[in-house]
Amino acid sequence: MGVTQEDHAVVSEISPNWVTTKLDYLVNLARTKSLWPMPFGTACCAIEFMATAASRYDLARFGMERMSFSPRQADVLICAGRLPFKLAPVIRRIWDQMPQPKWSISMGACASTGGIFDNYAMVQGIDTIIPVDVYVPGCPPRPEGLLYAILMLHKKISGESLADRGLRQEFTLREDGLFLAPERVDELGEPFGNSVHQTRSG
Amino acid sequence: MTAESPSVPALKEAFGSAILRAAVMCGDTIVYLARDRAHDVLAWLKDTPDQSFDYLTDITAVEYRDPERPLEIVYQLRSLERRADLRLKIELDPQGDLRVDSVYHLWRGADWLEREVFDMFGVTFTGHPDLRRILMWESYAEGHPLRKDFPLRGHFSRAEQVRRALSLKPEEHYSPEELEIVRRHLREDDPGRVPSGRGGRA
Q1: Which of A54, A117, B154, B159 is the least buried, fewest Cβ under 10 Å from its Cβ?
Q2: What ipTM was reported for this prediction?
Q3: Which of B163, B171, B175 to mutate against chain A (most A CBs within 10 Å)?
Q4: The whole model's pTM is what?
Protein backbone atom coordinates (compact mmCIF):
# COMPACT_ATOMS: atom_id res chain seq x y z
CA MET A 1 0.00 0.00 0.00
CA GLY A 2 2.97 2.32 0.53
CA VAL A 3 4.53 4.66 -1.99
CA THR A 4 6.85 2.68 -4.23
CA GLN A 5 10.22 3.65 -5.63
CA GLU A 6 8.59 4.25 -8.99
CA ASP A 7 6.12 6.74 -7.54
CA HIS A 8 8.97 8.69 -6.01
CA ALA A 9 10.56 8.91 -9.42
CA VAL A 10 7.34 10.32 -10.90
CA VAL A 11 6.99 12.82 -8.07
CA SER A 12 10.48 14.14 -8.52
CA GLU A 13 9.96 14.26 -12.27
CA ILE A 14 7.12 16.74 -11.94
CA SER A 15 8.22 18.13 -8.63
CA PRO A 16 6.39 21.27 -7.53
CA ASN A 17 7.04 24.20 -9.82
CA TRP A 18 5.14 27.32 -10.74
CA VAL A 19 2.76 25.52 -13.11
CA THR A 20 1.86 22.59 -10.87
CA THR A 21 1.35 24.69 -7.74
CA LYS A 22 -0.92 27.11 -9.59
CA LEU A 23 -2.80 24.17 -11.06
CA ASP A 24 -3.02 22.58 -7.61
CA TYR A 25 -4.43 25.82 -6.28
CA LEU A 26 -7.13 25.94 -8.92
CA VAL A 27 -8.06 22.27 -8.67
CA ASN A 28 -8.14 22.32 -4.87
CA LEU A 29 -10.19 25.53 -4.91
CA ALA A 30 -12.74 23.83 -7.14
CA ARG A 31 -12.77 20.72 -4.98
CA THR A 32 -13.15 22.51 -1.63
CA LYS A 33 -15.90 24.78 -2.88
CA SER A 34 -18.09 21.99 -4.21
CA LEU A 35 -17.76 19.03 -1.87
CA TRP A 36 -20.85 17.00 -2.53
CA PRO A 37 -21.66 14.98 0.56
CA MET A 38 -22.92 11.42 0.56
CA PRO A 39 -24.95 11.38 3.76
CA PHE A 40 -24.85 8.05 5.57
CA GLY A 41 -27.11 8.92 8.48
CA THR A 42 -28.05 6.13 10.87
CA ALA A 43 -28.79 7.82 14.18
CA CYS A 44 -29.08 11.07 16.14
CA CYS A 45 -25.93 12.46 14.49
CA ALA A 46 -27.97 12.53 11.29
CA ILE A 47 -30.40 14.94 12.98
CA GLU A 48 -27.49 17.28 13.75
CA PHE A 49 -26.30 16.77 10.19
CA MET A 50 -29.73 17.83 8.93
CA ALA A 51 -29.58 20.86 11.22
CA THR A 52 -26.20 21.69 9.71
CA ALA A 53 -27.69 21.47 6.25
CA ALA A 54 -30.69 23.60 7.17
CA SER A 55 -30.92 27.36 6.94
CA ARG A 56 -29.40 28.39 10.28
CA TYR A 57 -26.01 26.74 9.72
CA ASP A 58 -26.44 26.38 5.97
CA LEU A 59 -24.07 23.91 4.36
CA ALA A 60 -24.78 25.69 1.08
CA ARG A 61 -22.19 28.28 2.12
CA PHE A 62 -19.57 25.62 1.44
CA GLY A 63 -21.03 24.45 -1.84
CA MET A 64 -22.43 21.37 -0.12
CA GLU A 65 -26.15 21.96 -0.40
CA ARG A 66 -26.47 19.27 -3.02
CA MET A 67 -26.82 16.04 -1.00
CA SER A 68 -25.60 13.31 -3.27
CA PHE A 69 -27.77 10.32 -2.58
CA SER A 70 -25.93 8.46 -5.29
CA PRO A 71 -22.36 7.55 -4.34
CA ARG A 72 -21.33 7.95 -7.99
CA GLN A 73 -21.71 11.71 -7.76
CA ALA A 74 -20.37 12.14 -4.24
CA ASP A 75 -17.09 13.54 -2.95
CA VAL A 76 -17.27 13.13 0.80
CA LEU A 77 -18.93 10.33 2.75
CA ILE A 78 -20.30 11.59 6.04
CA CYS A 79 -21.07 8.69 8.36
CA ALA A 80 -23.43 10.28 10.87
CA GLY A 81 -24.32 7.73 13.49
CA ARG A 82 -23.53 4.25 14.70
CA LEU A 83 -22.70 1.52 12.25
CA PRO A 84 -24.02 -1.96 13.02
CA PHE A 85 -22.24 -4.97 11.56
CA LYS A 86 -25.25 -5.50 9.33
CA LEU A 87 -24.50 -2.17 7.61
CA ALA A 88 -20.73 -2.71 7.38
CA PRO A 89 -20.88 -4.27 3.89
CA VAL A 90 -23.27 -1.51 2.80
CA ILE A 91 -20.99 1.39 3.76
CA ARG A 92 -18.06 -0.51 2.25
CA ARG A 93 -20.00 -0.91 -1.00
CA ILE A 94 -20.92 2.79 -1.02
CA TRP A 95 -17.28 3.75 -0.40
CA ASP A 96 -16.13 1.48 -3.23
CA GLN A 97 -18.73 3.02 -5.54
CA MET A 98 -17.57 6.57 -4.91
CA PRO A 99 -15.13 7.77 -7.58
CA GLN A 100 -11.84 9.45 -6.77
CA PRO A 101 -11.19 12.03 -5.45
CA LYS A 102 -13.10 11.11 -2.30
CA TRP A 103 -12.87 11.81 1.40
CA SER A 104 -14.77 10.69 4.45
CA ILE A 105 -15.87 12.23 7.73
CA SER A 106 -16.65 10.08 10.75
CA MET A 107 -19.23 12.07 12.67
CA GLY A 108 -19.77 11.44 16.35
CA ALA A 109 -18.52 9.06 19.00
CA CYS A 110 -20.32 5.97 17.65
CA ALA A 111 -19.03 6.23 14.10
CA SER A 112 -15.52 6.98 15.34
CA THR A 113 -15.18 4.40 18.12
CA GLY A 114 -18.42 2.51 18.63
CA GLY A 115 -19.25 4.95 21.44
CA ILE A 116 -21.44 3.56 24.19
CA PHE A 117 -22.36 0.60 21.99
CA ASP A 118 -19.51 -1.69 22.95
CA ASN A 119 -21.61 -4.75 22.16
CA TYR A 120 -22.13 -7.69 19.83
CA ALA A 121 -23.90 -5.75 17.08
CA MET A 122 -21.78 -2.64 16.53
CA VAL A 123 -18.69 -1.84 14.49
CA GLN A 124 -16.10 -0.32 16.83
CA GLY A 125 -15.23 2.63 14.62
CA ILE A 126 -15.80 2.89 10.89
CA ASP A 127 -12.04 3.18 10.38
CA THR A 128 -12.03 -0.63 10.61
CA ILE A 129 -14.15 -0.64 7.43
CA ILE A 130 -13.14 2.41 5.34
CA PRO A 131 -10.38 5.03 5.55
CA VAL A 132 -11.39 8.17 7.46
CA ASP A 133 -10.06 11.70 6.90
CA VAL A 134 -11.63 13.67 9.74
CA TYR A 135 -13.17 12.48 13.01
CA VAL A 136 -15.73 14.65 14.79
CA PRO A 137 -16.05 14.10 18.54
CA GLY A 138 -19.38 14.58 20.29
CA CYS A 139 -22.52 12.68 21.12
CA PRO A 140 -23.93 13.99 18.89
CA PRO A 141 -21.61 16.80 17.74
CA ARG A 142 -23.23 20.19 17.41
CA PRO A 143 -23.50 21.62 13.88
CA GLU A 144 -20.49 23.84 14.69
CA GLY A 145 -18.50 20.65 15.26
CA LEU A 146 -19.42 19.26 11.88
CA LEU A 147 -18.69 22.62 10.22
CA TYR A 148 -15.28 22.63 11.88
CA ALA A 149 -14.63 19.16 10.51
CA ILE A 150 -15.63 20.31 7.05
CA LEU A 151 -13.29 23.31 7.32
CA MET A 152 -10.51 20.96 8.45
CA LEU A 153 -11.22 18.83 5.41
CA HIS A 154 -11.02 21.97 3.26
CA LYS A 155 -7.61 22.66 4.76
CA LYS A 156 -6.52 19.11 4.07
CA ILE A 157 -7.70 19.27 0.46
CA SER A 158 -6.03 22.66 -0.04
CA GLY A 159 -2.70 21.04 0.83
CA GLU A 160 -3.02 18.28 -1.75
CA SER A 161 -0.88 18.22 -4.84
CA LEU A 162 -1.42 16.65 -8.24
CA ALA A 163 2.21 15.59 -8.10
CA ASP A 164 1.49 13.33 -5.11
CA ARG A 165 0.45 10.04 -6.69
CA GLY A 166 -0.12 8.40 -3.30
CA LEU A 167 -3.15 10.57 -2.61
CA ARG A 168 -5.64 9.04 -4.99
CA GLN A 169 -4.86 5.48 -4.09
CA GLU A 170 -7.81 3.13 -3.72
CA PHE A 171 -7.66 1.13 -0.49
CA THR A 172 -9.53 -2.07 -1.23
CA LEU A 173 -10.16 -4.96 1.15
CA ARG A 174 -7.23 -7.22 1.95
CA GLU A 175 -7.11 -10.82 0.81
CA ASP A 176 -8.51 -12.04 4.14
CA GLY A 177 -11.60 -9.88 3.58
CA LEU A 178 -10.65 -7.25 6.15
CA PHE A 179 -9.76 -3.60 5.66
CA LEU A 180 -7.20 -3.52 8.48
CA ALA A 181 -5.02 -6.31 9.83
CA PRO A 182 -6.96 -8.52 12.28
CA GLU A 183 -4.78 -7.54 15.24
CA ARG A 184 -5.40 -3.85 14.46
CA VAL A 185 -9.16 -4.46 14.41
CA ASP A 186 -8.97 -6.31 17.73
CA GLU A 187 -6.87 -3.52 19.21
CA LEU A 188 -9.31 -0.83 18.04
CA GLY A 189 -12.22 -2.88 19.39
CA GLU A 190 -10.69 -3.19 22.86
CA PRO A 191 -12.95 -1.82 25.58
CA PHE A 192 -11.90 1.55 26.93
CA GLY A 193 -13.28 4.16 29.27
CA ASN A 194 -16.43 3.01 31.01
CA SER A 195 -16.68 -0.19 28.98
CA VAL A 196 -13.86 -1.86 30.93
CA HIS A 197 -16.09 -1.93 33.99
CA GLN A 198 -18.73 -4.05 32.29
CA THR A 199 -17.53 -7.20 34.02
CA ARG A 200 -20.83 -9.03 33.76
CA SER A 201 -20.36 -9.39 30.03
CA GLY A 202 -17.70 -12.03 30.61
CA MET B 1 -56.90 -0.28 39.73
CA THR B 2 -55.68 -3.38 41.52
CA ALA B 3 -58.69 -5.49 40.68
CA GLU B 4 -58.07 -8.80 38.95
CA SER B 5 -59.27 -9.06 35.38
CA PRO B 6 -62.69 -10.75 35.06
CA SER B 7 -61.11 -13.00 32.45
CA VAL B 8 -59.27 -14.94 35.17
CA PRO B 9 -62.28 -16.72 36.75
CA ALA B 10 -63.64 -17.41 33.28
CA LEU B 11 -60.31 -18.93 32.26
CA LYS B 12 -60.12 -21.03 35.41
CA GLU B 13 -63.61 -22.33 34.79
CA ALA B 14 -62.90 -23.17 31.17
CA PHE B 15 -59.41 -24.62 31.50
CA GLY B 16 -58.93 -25.60 35.16
CA SER B 17 -55.42 -26.84 35.79
CA ALA B 18 -54.03 -25.32 32.57
CA ILE B 19 -54.21 -21.96 34.36
CA LEU B 20 -51.31 -22.31 36.76
CA ARG B 21 -51.82 -19.09 38.70
CA ALA B 22 -52.74 -15.44 38.29
CA ALA B 23 -51.27 -12.30 39.80
CA VAL B 24 -51.94 -8.58 39.75
CA MET B 25 -48.89 -6.42 39.25
CA CYS B 26 -49.10 -2.60 39.05
CA GLY B 27 -52.75 -2.90 38.09
CA ASP B 28 -52.14 -5.44 35.32
CA THR B 29 -53.36 -9.01 35.53
CA ILE B 30 -50.81 -11.68 34.68
CA VAL B 31 -51.95 -15.23 33.97
CA TYR B 32 -49.46 -18.09 33.95
CA LEU B 33 -50.27 -20.86 31.47
CA ALA B 34 -49.20 -24.46 31.12
CA ARG B 35 -47.17 -24.77 27.95
CA ASP B 36 -49.10 -27.62 26.29
CA ARG B 37 -52.50 -25.92 26.68
CA ALA B 38 -51.33 -22.35 26.02
CA HIS B 39 -52.39 -22.31 22.37
CA ASP B 40 -55.92 -23.50 23.25
CA VAL B 41 -56.21 -20.85 25.95
CA LEU B 42 -55.08 -18.08 23.60
CA ALA B 43 -57.43 -19.26 20.85
CA TRP B 44 -60.29 -19.33 23.38
CA LEU B 45 -59.45 -15.80 24.56
CA LYS B 46 -59.53 -14.57 21.00
CA ASP B 47 -62.71 -16.30 19.84
CA THR B 48 -64.98 -16.29 22.89
CA PRO B 49 -67.42 -13.38 22.50
CA ASP B 50 -67.14 -12.30 26.16
CA GLN B 51 -63.36 -12.13 25.88
CA SER B 52 -62.70 -11.14 22.23
CA PHE B 53 -59.03 -10.32 22.67
CA ASP B 54 -58.73 -9.45 19.02
CA TYR B 55 -55.44 -7.54 19.16
CA LEU B 56 -52.06 -9.03 19.96
CA THR B 57 -50.05 -6.11 21.33
CA ASP B 58 -46.76 -7.91 21.80
CA ILE B 59 -44.95 -11.18 22.19
CA THR B 60 -41.66 -11.06 24.01
CA ALA B 61 -39.53 -13.12 26.34
CA VAL B 62 -37.70 -12.52 29.61
CA GLU B 63 -34.71 -14.35 30.99
CA TYR B 64 -33.69 -13.39 34.50
CA ARG B 65 -30.21 -13.14 35.95
CA ASP B 66 -31.07 -15.66 38.64
CA PRO B 67 -30.46 -19.10 37.12
CA GLU B 68 -33.27 -20.71 39.11
CA ARG B 69 -35.94 -18.47 37.61
CA PRO B 70 -37.67 -19.68 34.46
CA LEU B 71 -37.52 -18.04 31.07
CA GLU B 72 -40.88 -16.45 30.37
CA ILE B 73 -42.69 -16.03 27.07
CA VAL B 74 -44.99 -13.03 27.45
CA TYR B 75 -48.16 -12.40 25.46
CA GLN B 76 -49.80 -9.00 25.81
CA LEU B 77 -53.37 -9.09 24.56
CA ARG B 78 -55.90 -6.34 24.12
CA SER B 79 -59.58 -6.37 23.34
CA LEU B 80 -60.20 -3.32 21.21
CA GLU B 81 -63.97 -3.35 21.66
CA ARG B 82 -63.94 -4.07 25.41
CA ARG B 83 -60.90 -1.86 26.02
CA ALA B 84 -59.40 -4.53 28.25
CA ASP B 85 -55.86 -5.82 28.53
CA LEU B 86 -54.51 -9.17 29.64
CA ARG B 87 -50.94 -10.42 30.01
CA LEU B 88 -50.19 -14.12 29.75
CA LYS B 89 -46.94 -15.89 30.48
CA ILE B 90 -45.54 -19.32 29.71
CA GLU B 91 -42.66 -20.40 31.90
CA LEU B 92 -39.90 -22.47 30.34
CA ASP B 93 -36.71 -24.02 31.66
CA PRO B 94 -33.91 -21.87 30.19
CA GLN B 95 -31.67 -24.94 29.89
CA GLY B 96 -34.43 -27.16 28.54
CA ASP B 97 -36.43 -27.39 25.35
CA LEU B 98 -37.47 -23.87 24.34
CA ARG B 99 -40.49 -24.69 22.24
CA VAL B 100 -44.00 -23.25 22.23
CA ASP B 101 -46.85 -23.31 19.74
CA SER B 102 -47.02 -20.44 17.30
CA VAL B 103 -50.03 -18.13 17.44
CA TYR B 104 -49.44 -16.95 13.88
CA HIS B 105 -52.71 -18.48 12.75
CA LEU B 106 -54.65 -16.65 15.49
CA TRP B 107 -53.07 -13.22 15.04
CA ARG B 108 -51.07 -12.57 11.86
CA GLY B 109 -49.21 -9.85 13.73
CA ALA B 110 -47.40 -12.61 15.60
CA ASP B 111 -45.31 -13.29 12.50
CA TRP B 112 -42.46 -10.86 13.12
CA LEU B 113 -42.92 -10.82 16.91
CA GLU B 114 -42.24 -14.56 17.08
CA ARG B 115 -39.34 -14.22 14.66
CA GLU B 116 -37.82 -11.61 16.93
CA VAL B 117 -38.17 -13.80 20.03
CA PHE B 118 -36.64 -16.67 18.07
CA ASP B 119 -33.77 -14.47 16.92
CA MET B 120 -32.98 -12.99 20.32
CA PHE B 121 -33.78 -15.95 22.64
CA GLY B 122 -33.71 -19.05 20.47
CA VAL B 123 -37.30 -20.01 21.26
CA THR B 124 -38.82 -22.22 18.57
CA PHE B 125 -42.43 -21.49 17.68
CA THR B 126 -43.85 -24.68 16.21
CA GLY B 127 -46.28 -24.00 13.39
CA HIS B 128 -44.75 -20.67 12.40
CA PRO B 129 -44.61 -20.63 8.59
CA ASP B 130 -41.36 -18.67 8.23
CA LEU B 131 -39.28 -18.81 11.41
CA ARG B 132 -36.07 -17.02 10.43
CA ARG B 133 -33.88 -14.45 12.11
CA ILE B 134 -35.23 -10.94 11.73
CA LEU B 135 -32.85 -8.49 13.44
CA MET B 136 -29.57 -10.32 13.03
CA TRP B 137 -28.67 -11.53 9.56
CA GLU B 138 -29.42 -15.11 8.63
CA SER B 139 -25.80 -16.30 8.58
CA TYR B 140 -25.22 -14.92 12.10
CA ALA B 141 -23.43 -17.73 13.92
CA GLU B 142 -22.82 -16.45 17.44
CA GLY B 143 -26.11 -17.54 18.98
CA HIS B 144 -29.03 -15.67 20.45
CA PRO B 145 -27.89 -12.31 21.84
CA LEU B 146 -30.42 -11.67 24.61
CA ARG B 147 -29.72 -14.96 26.40
CA LYS B 148 -27.91 -14.50 29.70
CA ASP B 149 -25.13 -16.90 28.69
CA PHE B 150 -24.35 -14.68 25.69
CA PRO B 151 -21.36 -12.37 26.31
CA LEU B 152 -22.15 -8.69 25.70
CA ARG B 153 -19.50 -8.36 23.00
CA GLY B 154 -20.37 -11.63 21.30
CA HIS B 155 -18.46 -14.90 21.10
CA PHE B 156 -16.08 -14.07 18.26
CA SER B 157 -13.16 -11.64 18.25
CA ARG B 158 -13.77 -8.18 16.82
CA ALA B 159 -11.65 -9.03 13.79
CA GLU B 160 -13.67 -12.16 13.10
CA GLN B 161 -16.92 -10.23 13.51
CA VAL B 162 -15.74 -7.55 11.08
CA ARG B 163 -14.51 -10.17 8.63
CA ARG B 164 -17.84 -12.00 8.67
CA ALA B 165 -19.77 -8.74 8.38
CA LEU B 166 -17.72 -7.58 5.38
CA SER B 167 -18.16 -10.92 3.65
CA LEU B 168 -21.95 -10.46 3.70
CA LYS B 169 -23.50 -9.71 0.35
CA PRO B 170 -26.03 -6.89 0.84
CA GLU B 171 -27.99 -8.03 -2.21
CA GLU B 172 -28.75 -11.31 -0.44
CA HIS B 173 -30.78 -9.42 2.16
CA TYR B 174 -32.75 -7.61 -0.49
CA SER B 175 -32.81 -10.36 -3.09
CA PRO B 176 -35.69 -11.18 -5.43
CA GLU B 177 -36.20 -14.38 -3.39
CA GLU B 178 -36.60 -12.36 -0.20
CA LEU B 179 -39.05 -10.01 -1.85
CA GLU B 180 -40.89 -12.99 -3.34
CA ILE B 181 -41.53 -14.30 0.20
CA VAL B 182 -43.19 -10.98 1.02
CA ARG B 183 -45.25 -11.05 -2.16
CA ARG B 184 -46.35 -14.64 -1.51
CA HIS B 185 -47.51 -13.68 1.98
CA LEU B 186 -49.41 -10.73 0.62
CA ARG B 187 -51.20 -12.93 -1.91
CA GLU B 188 -52.13 -15.49 0.77
CA ASP B 189 -53.34 -12.75 3.04
CA ASP B 190 -55.33 -10.94 0.42
CA PRO B 191 -58.78 -12.39 1.21
CA GLY B 192 -58.21 -11.67 4.91
CA ARG B 193 -57.07 -8.16 4.19
CA VAL B 194 -60.49 -7.05 3.04
CA PRO B 195 -62.16 -5.86 6.24
CA SER B 196 -65.54 -7.34 5.52
CA GLY B 197 -66.28 -8.39 9.08
CA ARG B 198 -66.54 -6.82 12.46
CA GLY B 199 -63.29 -5.30 13.79
CA GLY B 200 -61.42 -5.93 10.55
CA ARG B 201 -61.92 -9.70 10.65
CA ALA B 202 -62.87 -11.41 7.43
Answers
A1: A54
A2: 0.81
A3: B163
A4: 0.81
